[in-house]
Write a structure and sequence with these properties.
2 domains; 249 residues; Nucleoside Triphosphate Pyrophosphohydrolase
Length: 249
């Protein structure tokens, strides 16, 4: 993290980084830990979303892209601003006050944060952290964890936004590799929505969508019968956007 710039003490960006492992929808969490220097006792150990304060010489989007690059090493990631969080009790918990005190970086007690969610193919990502542990966690587990600050609320809002948008916009394909099977696509929609989808109806509907294009290749290296691969064609989607396909799932 480049700290040579001066940051704004009361404005931050938090990124909800979603990924998919072909079974579960996952989110990136960063461990927050502090040990008593005198006794070695762990005083704080919990998790946060990937975020940081913005610098004086950058706008909000650039701050979010900086955080994503620091954590994933990737550029050109799907990123969307979805909400701003500014309740007066955002830093109300005792552990949060203690954390701000021990890191002593000049952050304000009252901070406005702008939430972004990012969608990436997690099978191609190596997560980075210079000073703390970072990993993927199932979203269902993360929503039950005692996350720092109001990050559980931010995560829930991001998930709600994602669930609404995947019905009408093809953003779910950002979570898949370029080539995928219809089963993988169905598993993804089920993971996002939390609902079981009828396989026969799902396949029938998807095969009627011209922007889900069959390929000549099939799966490699699988124990079962290899399935046909497909890819999403954005140009066809844009050309047929106004046709009556209904919701995407």
């Amino acid at each position: 993290m480049d700290l040579t710039h001066k940051f704004l003490a009361n404005v931050s960006v938090d990124c909800v980084i979603f990924g998919f492992d072909f079974e579960k929808l996952n989110v990136v969490l960063v461990e927050r830990e502090y040990d008593d220097p005198a006794t070695g006792e762990t005083i704080i150990r919990d998790y946060t979303l990937a975020g940081y304060h913005i610098f004086e010489d950058e706008d909000l989007d650039n701050a979010a892209y900086r955080i994503l690059k620091d954590r994933t090493g990737l550029e050109n990631i799907y990123l969307e601003q979805f909400a701003t969080f500014g309740k007066t009790d955002r830093v109300a918990k005792e552990m949060d006050h203690l954390w701000l005190k021990v890191i002593d970086k000049g952050f304000a007690d009252r901070v406005l944060t702008v939430g972004y969610f990012a969608l990436i193919d997690s099978t191609k990502v190596k997560l980075f952290s210079h000073d703390s542990k970072i990993d993927w966690f199932p979203v269902d587990d993360a929503l039950t964890m005692d996350l720092a600050f109001d990050h559980q609320e931010i995560l829930q809002k991001a998930l709600d936004t994602l669930r609404n948008k995947v019905r009408t916009e093809p953003i779910a394909f950002e979570l898949l590799p370029e080539c995928f099977t219809l089963t993988q696509l169905q598993n993804l929609y089920q993971a996002i929505t939390g609902n079981i989808i009828d396989k026969r109806n799902f396949r029938k509907k998807k095969l009627q969508m011209p922007f889900i294009v069959p390929r000549t290749e099939k799966q490699d290296g699988v124990a079962h019968r290899p399935a046909r691969l497909f890819h999403f064609d954005r140009n066809i989607f844009e050309q047929t956007r106004n046709e009556r396909f209904g919701n995407l799932f």
